[in-house]
UniProtKB/TrEMBL annotation:
The keyword Transferase applies. PANTHER family: ACETYLTRANSFERASE (PTHR43877:SF1), AMINOALKYLPHOSPHONATE N-ACETYLTRANSFERASE-RELATED-RELATED (PTHR43877). It comes from the Bacteria. Coiled coil: none annotated. GO terms for molecular function: acyltransferase activity, transferring groups other than amino-acyl groups. This is GNAT family N-acetyltransferase. Residues 8-150 form the N-acetyltransferase domain. InterPro entries: Acyl_CoA_acyltransferase, Bact_Acetyltransf, GNAT_dom. It comes from Paenibacillus kribbensis. Keywords: Acyltransferase, Transferase.
């Protein structure tokens, strides 16, 4: 468990953290939520990607999250967020480091993430922390059930 100071603690995320995490995510501008963020789907993500997602607690309350997973080729980060009152203290980089270290231990040496185009502060955060904005790649998505692929 990493400490920012005595009152902050970073630890692995578990399914039981969902309720507090969802309250945090709902209050964050720039973080997109979908049906993939139901309690069941998040629990499944955590089980499938055990030990790769982290939370930051302040005096026992959840104030930061990061979720990481991989497909055995590349890692992916999701839901990096820090409660407004606790920003500007380097908590997000600590969460990112924990997730990247965990991915590296799994043999994953490259990681991607998605940022909403309108989330300019989010884009600035990633650029300021050593992440490269990719040109020349477009994201294509498809809902499977709606295309008859049930
Ligand atoms: C982005 C976010 C996670 C940053 O959390 P944080 O713990 O406050 O991060 P910090 O401010 O301590 O940032 C650490 C470093 O990143 C830099 N940084 C953070 N936000 C920045 C911004 N908007 N522009 C430029 N640099 C930024 C800081 O200057 C700092 O660098 P330094 O240590 O050299 O001074 C937080 O603002 C947040 O939860 N935003 C809403 C959700 C979101 O957009 N998440 C990303 C989704 S892709």
């Amino acid at each position: 468990m990493a400490n920012v100071n005595d009152k902050y603690a970073i630890r692995m995320m578990k399914a039981d953290d969902y309720e507090q995490a969802f309250v945090l995510w709902n209050g964050l501008e720039g973080l997109g939520l979908s049906e993939a963020d139901s309690p069941e789907r998040i629990a499944r993500f955590l089980q499938r990607n055990e030990g790769l997602s982290f939370v930051c607690e302040y005096e026992g309350s959840l104030i930061g999250t990061i979720m990481a997973g991989h497909d055995s080729r590349r890692g992916f980060l999701y839901h990096l967020g820090v409660a407004t009152a606790h920003r500007g203290q380097g908590i997000a980089p600590l969460l990112v480091n924990e997730a990247l270290s965990a991915l590296l231990r799994e043999g994953i040496d490259k990681c991607h993430l998605f940022v909403m185009e309108h989330n300019e502060a989010g884009q600035r955060f990633w650029s300021a922390n050593g992440w490269e904005k990719r040109d020349g790649i477009l994201l294509y998505s498809r809902g499977l059930e709606s295309r008859g692929l049930e």
